[in-house]
Amino acid sequence: MKTHIRRREKNSELIIVFGGWGTDQNAFLPLCTDDHDLILYYNYSADEPLVLADFKSYKHIVLIAWSLGVWAAEYFSSSMNFKPDLSIAINGTPVPVDDKYGIPLSILEGTLNNINETGIEKYNFRIFGNKTNYENNLDKVARRSVKSFSDELRWLYNRIMETPDSGYNWTIALTCTEDRVFPYANMIKYWKNRSETRHLSLPLPHYPFFKWKSFNEMINYLLAETEAG
Q1: Which CATH number fits domain 2-228: 2.40.37.10, 3.40.50.1820, 3.40.50.720, 3.90.180.10?
Q2: At a CB cut-off of 8 Å and minimum separation 6, what does 30 contact?
Q3: pLDDT tens digits for 146-170?
């Protein structure tokens, strides 16, 4: 697993992000401000030590997990020994390879067995939903090799298939109606059974972050919308 850390002097807020498959820091650094520190986890294929921060030095910790990162956050949570003040799951579920609650098994296995440059380009296009969004967000596309995509998805597939839902306590779940990666209906089926989690749907694609200028703007929006609802 790769780790990207962004620190500023005397920040009291930490945002921890678990990215989805095939991402890198390009997808998330544009949302950072100098008001918080960031730890980003991505590329889960690498057998590298889990890098942790001194969580006790922060007054407020927010966990954000996107796509397959929702599963990854739960998978690694037992090793992290911290409790976030707010946890947000975005366009994913803790059972991400599932015909009812996640990506159908046949689709993920088909993707796994046919990873090439053309397939990755099509996947990136689906993340952003349409040509306009894709072209407007090219700077957020990962700069990684085909092999790294393949190695990561195989690692994720193997671990996901052997790991049950841990029942992690998510504060907010955001699901997007224009998602072309995770079936929207499957995500709805999962989160409606998690009564402790506040749920919000928005007409956005799988990668919805371009709607907001920063993580804090997104967090405040989701809090306001779910508390109002």
Answers
A1: 3.40.50.1820
A2: 139, 140
A3: 999 999 999 999 999 998 888 899 9
